């Protein structure tokens, strides 16, 4: 039974080899849930982690009634993990946060308060703290996407 249907908002957290962040995710998201503007839950999507992340997620979910998880048997990539999370979540509203917590869950309330006035609310992450390699990867991926989609973004 998918318990995300009992909530108004599901926070999807895609995870790939983030074992060092699992405890911080638990603490940060546990602190946010009571403050959320909607009754909220957390859905971890383990993307075939090989570093013990899945075991950490299982422990976290066993301690927290509002935390759930699904997992892939092998790494499928961020897009597949996000799609699986969005497909699995049965709450009315869904958002996601990276496992590295470069953004704070409190930002969801900024978006959730706008929901009555629009059909979608989107945030943009500013002041990223990515490595040079990650920044280069992102630029290459974004350029490729622009070439393929011609969307001008």
Shape: globular
Strand content: 15-25%
Counting DSSP E segments of at least 2 residues, the number of strands comes to: 4
Largest sheet: 4 strands, parallel
- Low-confidence runs of at least 5 consecutive residues: none
Mean pLDDT: 88
Number of domains: 1
Radius of gyration: 16 Å
* Helical residue percent band: 25-40%
Question: Could you give the order of the helices and strands?
Answer: EHEHEHEHH
Kindly report the spatial arrangement of strands forming the biggest sheet. 3-2-1-4
Name given to the CATH architecture: Alpha-Beta Complex
User: Total helix count?
Assistant: 5
Head-to-tail CA distance between termini: 39 Å
* Structural class label: alpha/beta
Brief rundown of the structure:
This protein has 153 residues and is an alpha/beta fold. It contains five helices and four strands.
Overview of this structure, please?
This protein has 153 residues and is of the alpha/beta class. It has a single domain, classed as Spore Coat Polysaccharide Biosynthesis Protein SpsA, Chain A (Alpha-Beta Complex), CATH 3.90.550.10. It is 37% helix and 16% strand. It contains 5 helices and 4 strands; from the N terminus they run E-H-E-H-E-H-E-H-H. A 4-stranded parallel sheet has the order 3-2-1-4, sandwiched between helices. The protein is globular.
Blueprint of the fold:
Elements: E1 9-15, H1 22-32, E2 40-47, H2 53-63, E3 67-72, H3 78-88, E4 93-96, H4 107-112, H5 132-149
Parallel strand pairs: 1-2, 1-4, 2-3
């Amino acid at each position: 039974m998918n318990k995300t249907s009992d909530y108004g908002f599901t926070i999807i957290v895609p995870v790939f080899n983030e074992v060092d962040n699992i405890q911080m995710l638990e603490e940060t998201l546990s602190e946010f849930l009571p403050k959320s503007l909607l009754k909220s839950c957390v859905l971890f999507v383990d993307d075939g982690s090989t570093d013990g992340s899945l075991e950490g997620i299982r422990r976290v979910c066993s301690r927290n009634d509002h935390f759930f998880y699904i997992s892939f048997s092998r790494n499928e990539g961020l897009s597949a993990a996000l799609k699986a999370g969005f497909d699995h979540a049965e709450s009315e509203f869904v958002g996601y946060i990276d496992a590295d917590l470069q953004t704070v869950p409190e930002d969801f309330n900024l978006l959730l308060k706008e929901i009555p006035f629009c059909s979608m609310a989107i945030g943009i992450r500013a002041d990223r703290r990515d490595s040079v390699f990650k920044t280069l990867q992102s630029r290459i991926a974004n350029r490729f996407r622009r070439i393929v989609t011609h969307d001008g973004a």
